[in-house]
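worker-3 :: picked Enoyl-CoA hydratase
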Amino acid sequence: MVTLSSVARSMGRRFVGYPKPYLSQFRTLLLQSTSQCVNLRRLSNSDSGIVEVNLDRPGVKNAIGWDMLRGLQHSFEAISRDSSANVLMIRSSVPKVFCAGADLKVGTGKMLSYACNQLFVSIESTGTRVLDHLSVICFDWQERKTMSSSEVQDFVNTLRSTFSYLEALHIPSIAVVEGAAFGGGLEMALSCDLRICGEDAVLSMPETGLAIIPGKNKFPAKLFSRAGGTQRLPRLVGRSVAKELIFTGRKICGRDAVSMGLANYCVPSGEAHLKALEIAQSINQKGPLAIRLAKRAINEGFEVDLASALALEEECYEQLLNTKDRLEGLAAFAEKRKPKYVGE
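worker-3 :: tokens ->
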């Protein structure tokens, strides 16, 4: 059995704790990845089974560069190998921003200025201003302005395949969105199973303002059924709403995201993590094998006709019939106690 602890030892890393404000709520362990801007945390005690990926690149408001991208890849791969992980939360350590995204199809200062003007304006629907996010943009300009076309293409392909890997994880994933989630940042949130927004959340796909479109993937559809924003967004909010958001690049707040089905909850600013943790704790108490197979049945069944989807559901159900967890669930119900699932 591979766990995050064994991964940490093999990497020669050490575990450290959360900052003090968190210690009063729950104990955690930190697995430092090879990236300086992505941290992989594992909660412990009663929350064992919950893992967190923390984005921490404050200088550019979590814009995704190569270092962060590699950190995300390594973190998701470690989670995929960890049989004790039951639910993932992705959050930001940077105030007022989730992730500024990544967009390399920019080559002039004029277009950079245009993008800033398009993104960082008043949000009339909420009365919120995001001018303090002026350093947030859909790309890390200093890192990427010298990239060749082939390097840009390689980065974009790697970014999209990383998001598809996240979407295909066997455990549920929750995006904790406080502040800005633009372009690729929003696409990362769309790759998660659930999205929890704070009231200060600002979400947008501004790519058409830069003469490109959201999302790209070089992998065949049978390997990764969804590519990027033009595919995931309409599956959540419907084609008409998705078209309007992508065609105009309109920014929406957390409440609007919930009303259109883009987010599951909108909570007061600063409380999105607590709400996400509450949901993660609820998932963590359920049978882990059942959760994983339910996710598979929903995701794969959504892509096929109803008859095929029902056959898939039956296949997933049959895999649970002879498990220890199913017997434990029945016994706990009969004995009127909480079940103790072991994932077998």
